[in-house]
Design brief:
The structure is a homodimer.
Chain A (H helix, E strand, L loop, with lengths): L3 H6 L21 E2 L7 H10 L8 E3 L16 E6 L7 H15 L4 E5 L3 H5 L3 E4 L1 H7 L18 H13 L4 E6 L1 H16 L5 E6 L17 H22 L3 E6 L6 H10 L3 E2 L2 H6 L4 H17 L5 E6 L7 H16 L1 H6 L3 H11 L2 H9 L2 H9 L14 H18 L9 E6 L1 H4 L5 H19 L5 E6 L9 E6 L4 E6 L2 E6 L9 H15 L15 H4 L4 H6 L9
Parallel strand pairs in A: 3-4, 3-6, 6-7, 7-12, 8-10, 8-11, 9-10
Antiparallel strand pairs in A: 1-2, 2-13, 4-5, 12-13, 14-15
Helix pairs in contact in A: 3-5, 3-19, 8-9, 9-20, 11-17, 12-15
Chain lengths: 562, 562
């Protein structure tokens, strides 16, 4: 059912690069250079793996001076999937794609496979028409099609995928997804080109985590909305802390491995402490070093009578702590090798005893230093492959337990005199399906138009990219970047695989530098910044904000106010 | 530091009843009738406890036809405190109060005691001037003064309070708080009147929980903002569930005893299941009955291939389940009587063994039916008085564990074939300090103006009340209602005490009737309603919404679209 908010928000017209106004007259005449950051050896390997699609040029999409609008261009038939975790803007990509195709020819047809790539294999789809596009425009969620995490991997799956897409007689497939899904898109593009299929494959960079970015891709859509929602909640909680003066709030933030979300949220809200996984790793901090850092701040704040505060914890933190990472690897190994016997042990105690004598001395030491609840989570709460489910580990509670116990020690020594009261939070699911901000609505829509343009231009193995994101919309530049350009070769499950590189927080980058410059001041002075709820209808300075980290990373804004 | 959101929001001018435009010319000539709902015997007891302030009339605040604006009225000196949990709008009450006093005379002075009533006892205050009011107008949080939960209780505290307030030579004290704080305000009013002090006391109804309402008070401020924020997050999570089709989300909602927040959030978002504590209690459901209800829905949804869903759980639920309530009482008793010995037991196991043999057969049966994590929370995580901390019990996780184990049983019997994956959430602190909605900004500001008017009129022991809240602002009616009118006598810690009655969800009221009418349809049909983020700048139909339960409770709107 509709609501006043949805009715009004549906009226918003996403903005996009001017050039995309007349898709049918676009040309590929203008090329950029294409360079890769990986070693020559890796480039050679990639060329071997992608003989048909490696080494293509970057395409700037625009109008050559000579071409004019082609009337009655050939209609396009295109399939689209939403892949992986939800990100605000997904529906707008599809709207942009649909409308680009309509511009090319009103006889174009878009179908959406349901539930990610498994929808292709099952041939489970719906037709995306004008009503669908209008209904979902500017809404959050991936509920138009549903999403899924499966990849097309086996030779059989590739064949089924080809059979289904060719039966539908599509000209192209658009994969809206993160690094893994875009890697899969590159493999599909190569596969189709190798078998001379007409199916072209285009990827679209999606993820709230912000880890799909590189010298070509400035941002993935969804990041802005998710972080702004988290920032709103963090600043509300900060005000609560400052009003009640009672609790330390440990707030874990979604974002798997990289700490981009936590970094941006910190620049937006000014917490007392912010942990950045990449920094913890670089400084080779152990779990108890991290705990000690937090404890020292709590002791300092207690001295000025502040027994409350805000601590941001990235979801991936625990995997960046070397001893814990090693423990996880050992545990996964033990649990995999002994799964049959372990299945006969039902109680935590019996599993615990068994595991402990299988662990190395280091592993056992680390394991037994963890609170029981966490030990339990590690042993009892496994993913379908039997692996430790890192994203389910409540790192914020782990830290609270260890901080609490260390503070008890310091209290008995008279070093600390406060009462440590605490609350824990995990911000994640509430942000992945929020209605996209103006920025994400515009950006995702533009990515959809660009994907349509790339298919109209007949290229394959490209990512739809929009550049100059910190500039005004008319200066945004639609670009096609070969997916293989973003790849390197990584060891995955014992095999060398070509994958799109995940971008971690760069400790030499401008956003982290800004954080370092500012954060000392946040420890004792409560400089909480109230970023406010996402606004969709108000003045531009409120509704059209950009992520601070994006602005800091761009060349032309050196002095971003944080 | 300021932000674009804050700068723009500061410009909003709260709307208020017309009559409050010229406070200095208001009169008390117009009286309403004052009736109490409690038994004659209780009325008699209350009269005995409040000889000076019981039986005062309700005051409608307006302009008599004969009075004209008094120029150069006597300046007011007033003290204000924020008491109890944060609620959006608290700062606007203070702004309204400040501006009412300025209208009376520019020489009026407002001081705010810090950290609730303990600030009075410590004489810790700040002067609220124009800059303070302008800085905090339309902002969330209680950080202007801080808040506290202490009450003025002992004879000594009453005396200190009087000494401090009289030393400041104030004409009045405004207590912004919930039922307990307003009860305390009533006691203070009586105390000052009995000793012929000039200090008048006025209460203002604050609480996000929505449980401070009665035939005179239509709503407390803060409820609207908090529930709308929670509703936004719930609808985001609903979209996530519908997109990923993977998880059951168990969402616990703040709101202590009463389920008003959960009921309103359900009307806003249409979850698959919503538990209402008051209904569970009326139907005398045990914990396993509640679990079985949830399990049945999960089994039904599994049959139509829906292995995801949204379940709303009120924070207070567990206390409304008779067997659990009895267990808590037993535990509190045992833990209090044996605290010295228990302090010597450090491990959960040793405490557990000791407690179990002290519990009654019923108590022990209930206790051992609970998952270990919950047993641990009950024994290890006590409040400063040694009591079970109900608000810290993760009821959503308790339900998940019990549902999971019951589903395993049904799976082995072949009745259930799904995979039960789940996520748990607690929505609370993120909503208490959000920037107030237009409704809360206006309502709180009007309550502040009304409090100022009541002090100007020289009355004491009144609550500042604004009526006709579902009508347009010009039809809002400022009223003073005697605090004692809302009281009854309750047993508290073995003593009979006069207290303001907490309002629970009425199972015969219109909001619950609407829920009952609708909820059957939500079980299988995902009718998730996307209420959207709180908007402060957009079209009125988006920015000026009212709580659905408030509209349903009002006489003149029978057909509220839910």
């Amino acid at each position: 059912m509709t609501t006043p908010f949805m009715e009004q928000r549906a009226l918003y017209k996403p903005r996009y690069p001017e050039a995309l106004d007349t898709i049918s007259s676009l040309s590929t005449e203008s090329f950029g250079n294409c360079t890769s950051d990986v070693s020559e050896d890796q480039q050679k390997q990639l060329k071997g793996l992608f003989p048909k699609t490696y080494g293509q040029p970057v395409i700037k999409i625009g109008h050559s001076k000579t071409t004019t609008a082609t009337k009655d261009a050939k209609p396009l038939k295109v399939a689209v999937i939403l892949s992986g975790g939800q990100a605000p803007g997904g529906h707008n990509v599809i709207c942009g794609l649909y409308e680009a195709m309509q511009q090319v020819s009103p006889d174009s047809q878009l179908i959406g496979f349901k539930g990610g790539s498994s929808g292709i294999l099952k041939d489970d789809y719906l037709v995306v028409d004008k009503d669908t596009a209008d209904h979902f425009r500017n809404t959050g969620g991936f509920n138009m099609l549903g999403s899924g995490r499966a990849k097309i991997e086996s030779a059989e799956q590739f064949a089924t995928c080809a059979k289904v897409l060719e039966r539908h007689n599509v000209d192209g497939l658009v994969v809206i997804g993160g690094d893994d899904s875009n890697t899969n898109a590159a493999l599909l593009a190569e596969y189709f080109k190798a078998k001379n299929s007409k199916v072209k494959v285009i990827g679209v960079p999606k993820t709230i985590d912000g880890d799909l970015k590189n010298k070509y891709v400035e941002a993935s859509f969804g990041f802005d909305t998710a972080v702004r929602l988290y920032s709103e909640l963090i600043s509300n909680i900060s005000r609560d802390a400052q009003s009640a003066k009672k609790y330390y709030h440990f707030i874990r933030l979604m974002g798997r491995a990289a700490s981009h979300i936590t970094l941006e949220a910190a620049l937006q809200t000014h917490p007392n402490i912010v942990l950045i996984s990449e920094e913890v790793e670089l400084e080779k901090k152990g779990l108890f070093d991290v705990v000690e850092d937090i404890v020292q701040v709590i002791v300092q704040r207690n001295k000025v009578d502040k027994n409350y505060g805000i601590i941001l914890v990235p979801e991936g933190l625990i995997e960046f702590i070397p001893e814990i990472k090693a423990l996880f690897d050992e545990l996964n190994d033990i649990l995999a090798t002994n799964s049959t016997y372990l299945a006969t042990l039902h109680s935590f105690t019996s599993k615990n005893e068994y595991i402990n004598h299988k662990l190395s001395k280091d592993g056992s030491y680390t394991f037994s230093s963890l609170p029981t609840d966490i030990q339990r989570q590690l042993l009892m709460d496994r993913d379908p492959h039997g692996n430790v489910q890192v994203s389910r580990i409540e790192t914020e509670k782990l830290l609270i337990e260890l901080v609490e116990s260390r503070l008890r020690e310091l209290k008995s020594e008279g070093v600390y005199t406060g009462d440590f009261a605490h609350q824990s939070h995990f911000l994640g699911y509430e942000g992945r399906c929020a209605a996209p901000t103006n920025f994400d609505a515009d950006y995702a829509y533009s990515l959809g138009l660009t994907a349509g343009a790339l298919l109209h231009l007949g290229v394959t193995g490209y990512m739809s990219v929009v550049k100059n994101l910190t500039k005004s919309r008319d200066q945004w530049q639609a670009v096609g970047v070969p997916l293989t350009t973003m790849m390197n070769i990584e060891q995955r499950n014992g095999q060398k695989k070509p994958v799109i590189k995940k971008s971690l927080v760069s400790l030499s980058g401008a956003p982290f530098a800004k954080l370092k410059e500012k954060r000392e001041n946040w420890i004792l002075n409560d400089d909480y910044r109230f970023s406010g709820a996402i606004q969709y209808f108000g003045p531009p300075e409120v509704c059209d904000q950009l992520p601070k980290s994006l602005r800091l990373e761009s060349d032309d804004t050196q002095s971003v106010d944080c």
